């Protein structure tokens, strides 16, 4: 065969081409298989990377150290059976937006290749995935010290004052000016102005300001340059639209009116009883022989007047109804037992120097002069006295359970009065003077002295109330050394000012005060045990120790028309409720007022607050060695301006206001 014929022959060429093509087909098929395996590997490792990023972010939030990031991510990846991965972990600033922080985990694993190696591919292919978890809230840590003034200094320290909020932010809509010893916070933010530092210390993970950052060149006690962000931040009152607060404020100035304390009905009868050595004709039949003792049998008696001379003993047997139109007078040294009867008296009442006893039954005394001296007792039953009742000179009056109504009560000169369980209505002033005591039991308290003081306690005066509804149409004013206890109820209504210079315990519930709250005391602290009843108050409230404080309340909210001023070395412990009850407690709200009056906490007052003090229109000044702290709990102050000066110290262990006002959501969130 000639050589040229070789090229003219085609026998077997198809087989050669097919063989050569088969190599490419097998390689492409292998590549498809390996790519699919790579895709499956990517899906699996992405899930692990996501979990690793979240776990590392949570660990960082808890520990605060970058050193915890990589070990946490490596442990989680290994726990999912991935032992040949390359793991890169980083804490990123200003990610995913300016001021935010995020943890990024990059996970690279080798995937062995199979048939695709026919095409010359490497033995393995890297499968790389990335996950990023944002530290939720890091873009703008929620404030627990917040000044809302957009011009001038919204938050300021002066002199030796400090603000310490290590786990949350100190924020001002206007400037934040540290002219004092220091401000410590998670973040320090000026929403629309400047951050200014003088000789003191700024300690924070981040400074954010819309204007400028000012600090002397010699002062290195500030965050590094990479921790400062020149960026504006929208600042607003987080409670501005609270429906709970708006509804609560509608009750400011409201009160309940005491029931009418009227004169009893006493017919005009002529009979006058005189008990003495020369008794009247009406009283003479009750005399025991020629003695100074008289016993009046049960019956219905209508009298003009009763007079009991000195040194006489009179006993009224049970079962009578006695009306007296023109008064009852008891002479000195007499012993009188009015028995278990119904007594209706007009024209005044005088117990004499030794005192008298009323048994169980009704006691109703009308207008006129009503005075008790010596040792007196009124048993269980309704008591109504349409006159000011006055106790003085060591007098005592113990009243049993039942409804109690008085025009006014005055206890002084070392005297005391106790009231058993039952409602108390007082149409005038309750006044307790030095070293004198009024103790009342469980019941509804309705007090009124409109335009003046509903309750006045002078130095060492004491008034202790049991649980029950409370309403006072008038001011409540106490002097140094006094003691006042409010019982528990849903809402205490006070149409006036609450001015405390002695010690006070606030029973759980809301306090709606149309005026302001002032505590200017110091020195008279709890607990206290009464020598009269052996009752003790002020060791604990709601299971929380309040010993050593002079003003204390647990699970309390104050809705004020005025503001809250603290001075005089006051030692205050107030703790807000943890849950909302309709018409009563408001969760996490300690004090709320829309007043523009200035608020001053000074003169060495020592305050432990847990909850939100919301004074969005008031400039709050802490001075004179004042300490307003949270004692390891959460205290948030929202005011128009916040100024700490003269050695004042404000501190909170709050992590964010979301801890207080129903914030939700996790600590971290996956963003990529």
What does this structure look like?
Keywords: Membrane, Transmembrane, Transmembrane helix. The chain crosses the membrane at residues 12-33. By secondary structure, this protein is mainly beta. Among the domains are: 20-135, no CATH class; 143-236. It has three helices and 58 strands. The strands form four sheets. It has a 50-stranded parallel β-sheet that branches. Strands 1-2-3-58 form a four-stranded antiparallel β-sheet. Strands 44-45 form a two-stranded antiparallel sheet. A hairpin with a 7-residue loop joins strand 1 (86-93) and strand 2 (101-112). Helix 1 crosses helix 2. The longest helix is centred in the first third of the chain and has 51 residues, at 13-63. The radius of gyration is 40 Å and the shape is elongated.
């Amino acid at each position: 065969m000639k050589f040229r014929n070789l090229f003219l022959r085609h026998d077997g060429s198809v087989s050669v081409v097919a063989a050569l093509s088969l190599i490419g087909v097998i390689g492409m098929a292998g590549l498809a298989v390996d790519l699919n395996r790579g895709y499956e590997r990517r899906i699996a490792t992405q899930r692990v990377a996501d979990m690793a990023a979240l776990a590392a972010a949570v660990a960082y939030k808890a520990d605060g150290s970058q050193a915890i990031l990589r070990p946490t991510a490596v442990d989680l990846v290994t726990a999912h059976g991935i032992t040949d991965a390359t793991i890169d972990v980083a804490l990123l600033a200003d990610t995913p937006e300016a001021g935010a922080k995020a943890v990024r985990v990059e996970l690279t694993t080798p995937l062995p290749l199979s048939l695709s190696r026919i095409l010359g591919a490497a033995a393995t292919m890297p499968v790389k995935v990335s996950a990023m978890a944002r530290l939720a809230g890091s873009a703008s840590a929620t404030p627990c010290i917040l000044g809302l003034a957009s011009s001038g200094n919204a938050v300021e320290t002066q002199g030796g004052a400090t603000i310490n909020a290590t786990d949350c932010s100190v924020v001002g809509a206007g400037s934040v000016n540290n002219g004092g010893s220091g401000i410590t916070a998670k973040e320090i933010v000026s929403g629309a102005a400047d951050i200014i530092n003088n000789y003191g210390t700024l300690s924070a993970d981040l400074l954010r300001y819309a204007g400028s950052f000012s600090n002397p060149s010699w002062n290195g006690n500030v965050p590094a340059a990479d921790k400062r962000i020149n960026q504006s931040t929208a600042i607003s009152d987080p409670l501005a639209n609270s429906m709970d607060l708006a509804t609560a404020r509608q009750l400011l100035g409201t009160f309940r009116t005491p029931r009418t304390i009227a004169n009893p009905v006493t017919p005009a009868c002529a009979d006058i009883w005189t008990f003495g050595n020369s008794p009247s004709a009406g009283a003479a039949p009750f005399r025991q022989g020629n003695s100074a003792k008289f016993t009046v049998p049960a019956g219905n008696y209508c009298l003009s007047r009763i007079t009991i001379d000195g040194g006489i003993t009179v006993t009224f047997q049970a079962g009578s109804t006695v009306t007296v139109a023109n008064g009852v007078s008891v002479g000195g040294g007499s012993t009188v037992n009015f028995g278990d009867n119904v007594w209706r008296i007009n024209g005044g009442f005088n117990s004499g120097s030794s005192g008298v006893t009323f048994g169980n039954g009704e006691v109703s005394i009308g207008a006129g002069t009503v005075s008790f001296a010596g040792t007196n007792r009124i048993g269980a039953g309704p008591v109504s006295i349409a006159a000011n009742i006055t106790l003085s000179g060591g007098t005592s009056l113990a009243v049993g359970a039942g409804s109690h109504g008085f025009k006014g009560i005055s206890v002084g000169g070392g005297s005391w009065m106790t009231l058993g369980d039952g409602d108390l209505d007082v149409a005038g002033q309750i006044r307790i003077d030095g070293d004198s005591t009024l103790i009342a039991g469980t019941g509804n308290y309705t007090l009124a002295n409109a335009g003046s003081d509903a309750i006045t306690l002078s130095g060492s005066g004491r008034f202790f109330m049991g649980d029950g509804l409370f309403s006072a149409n008038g001011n409540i004013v106490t002097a140094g050394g006094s003691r006042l206890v409010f019982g528990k109820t849903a809402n205490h209504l006070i149409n006036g000012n609450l001015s405390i210079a002695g010690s006070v315990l606030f029973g759980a519930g809301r306090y709606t005060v149309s005026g302001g709250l002032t505590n200017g005391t110091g020195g008279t602290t709890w607990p206290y045990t009464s020598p009269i009843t052996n009752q003790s108050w002020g060791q604990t409230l709601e299971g929380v120790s309040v010993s050593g404080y002079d003003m204390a309340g647990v699970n309390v909210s104050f809705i004020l028309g005025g503001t809250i001023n603290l001075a005089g070395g006051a030692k205050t412990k107030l703790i807000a409720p943890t849950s909302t009850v309709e018409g009563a407690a408001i969760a996490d709200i300690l004090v709320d007022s829309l007043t523009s009056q200035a608020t001053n906490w000074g003169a060495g007052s020592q305050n432990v607050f847990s909850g939100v003090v919301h004074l969005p229109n008031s400039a709050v000044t802490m001075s004179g060695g004042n300490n307003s702290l949270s004692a390891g709990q959460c205290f948030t102050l929202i005011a128009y301006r916040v100024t700490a000066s003269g050695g004042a110290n404000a501190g909170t262990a709050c992590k964010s206001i979301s801890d207080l006002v129903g914030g939700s959501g996790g600590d971290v969130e996956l963003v990529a």
